[in-house]
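Table S2 (continued). Query chain:
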Amino acid sequence: MHKLHFALLLATSFCFSQTLSIESGGFVIINSNSSVSVDGLELSPSVAYTLEGPNSIARSSTSVVVGDNSSIERIYELSNELTDYSGVLSFRYLDTELSGIDEAELVLEVLDTNDVWNNVVPSIDDVNNILSYDFTELVGFKKVTASASSATLTIKTETLNDIVRVYPNPTTDKIIIASNSSQHSTMFNTAGQKILESNALELDLTGLPKGVYLLNLQNPQNQISTFKIIKK
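Corresponding output:
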């Protein structure tokens, strides 16, 4: 096991294009004073951490789009969620991947087990193009990328003056929109694809897969409420 760990560290020091694959029943231990870097994504746990198989880490260059916002052109994806991790997560990027985003505006985005993007404000090394964040509480994630702080992938729940309510949430079949004005509904999945549009105050979700969705409601005054909807 120590030989596997050492070989992995050597390979990632000299090979920028690489994926990590761990077969079922296999594992890699990262000690608290060590780190593993896979194609620019580095894990430096605060306590010894075990990467268990089956799992793999790979990088792609297709931006993630959620609503009108998109990430930079670098995404790391794990085949299975990395769970109960604490420590530093470092993310390398190229200037050509920023899609016009100012480096000073970058935030780290991690996709959790509920398919919800969450952002954190990292330390930015704009000389070496590295974003770093120390997770002091246990987190789990299956994708990592970066976006602009003013246009994050994170789903935010907002209500305008307590006028608009959406229930039941979570739901298994439908949601009801309670409002003293008409609302135009637009629903997106976590990939940013529009899947529903309606002017009705009751939305039938029975045909949708289980997961997390983003619901935008717009009233006649063009005020917008945004809700995270969980379909069970």
